[in-house]
Amino acid sequence: EAVRGFTLGNAYAAGLEGQMGSITPGKLADLVVLSEDIFGIEPAQISDVKGLSTFFGGRLVYASPCAAWGKPDPD
Asked: 30: which residues sit within 8 A by CB, 6+ positions away?
């Protein structure tokens, strides 16, 4: 529910659901790569998930130093 609210919900609130908010052909595709599948872990563990990289406007704007090696960020 939270992921839907932050993706489709925000796009709908801005009147942009036809352009963004879901991974659909023809829509903008800003995204983040996470260290874990947040849908496959316990909700209490989500706060431990690290952002490995961020793409905005089709360009890489952030890459964790550990992302290329497939290792989690050091704490």
From this structure: 20, 54, 55, 56, 57
Nearest-CA neighbor of 65 among 46, 47, 45, 51? 51
Three-state DSSP at 26 gives coil
What pLDDT was estimated at residue 58?
Answer: 77
Confidence of residue 41 (pLDDT cuts 50, 70, 90): very high
Contacts of 50 (CB under 8 A, 6+ apart): 34, 35, 64, 72, 73
Position 70 scores a pLDDT of: 54
Whether this model's pTM surpasses 0.90: no
Take residue 30 and report the two structure tokens written for it.
């800003």
Asked if residue 56 lies in contact with residue 30, where contact means CB atoms within 8 angstroms, the answer is yes
